[in-house]
Fold this protein.
Amino acid sequence: MKTLFVRTLCLFVFAATLASAQEVIPLYPGAPGSTPGSTPENYPEKEYFSKVWNTEVVANVTKPTLTVFKPSPESKNGMAIVICPGGGFMALSINSEGFDVAKYLVAKGVTAFVLKYRLAHTGEDATQEFTALYEKDRPKFQETVGKVVPLAISDGLAAVTYVRQHASDWGVFPDRVGIIGFSAGGSVTAGVAFGYQPEGRPAFVAPIYAAAGRFKEAPVPADAPPMFLAAATDDQLGLAPDSVALYEKWTGAHKSAELHMYAKGGHGFGMRKQNLPTDHWIDRFADWLELQGWLQK
């Protein structure tokens, strides 16, 4: 009975969070099947509470969207950010790595856009499938997500470009649009950092405990934006070295970068409270944004 109450309460909070978002925008407006690089799919997007991850998740995204969170007119500072939740390209940890991040930054005057990027097709519980494949059958996991990773990165690139092109609609400046992402969403963010075109150049990039091994040979862009990174040494997926490698690539190219490597926190700490220093990474991110001048009106 207690478990049912907790789940009901969590779903209520999830719905209330969605209700507080002003609008949901299709990233690729147009007829069904018009999403670049994708074939029309007949399975629906799914939102549910994951017992495995103990949080709300979204799965089976085929039509990418941006959920917009707007600051008050009094606090708006002209900065915008695209937020990419993680979930192994099989799900999205939509609250801890999405909506909760947006709410924190909106309180700082930032206009936030939570991106639902394309995911691999999964069954009843994407988080169970991810855990089983990642831990026990890594080749099968790579096969499952391999085709969708480039599509997800394309969605990240398109999201930054879209917000820049429509900046005046939300009262933000095109040259103050950045991107942050977590885990798989951090991979999307890193993909944007390496692959943007001039019209979609992010003001900054923030891959958080990203899986970034695929970018080992990628050259750092000549006009690469500043980078903020955070991860934990005890990341149980073994991804801490990826953040160090990204930092070294950026600084090796004489580009601005800041890295916070925590001793404890594990993988996927996001906005979760664990009574650890990782609880405050978002405050260090805000400090960095202030230092860069992005939070100034």
User: Anything to note?
Assistant: Residues 198 and 253 are 19 Å apart (CA to CA). The radius of gyration is 18 Å. Residues 2-292 form a domain with the Rossmann fold fold (CATH 3.40.50.1820).
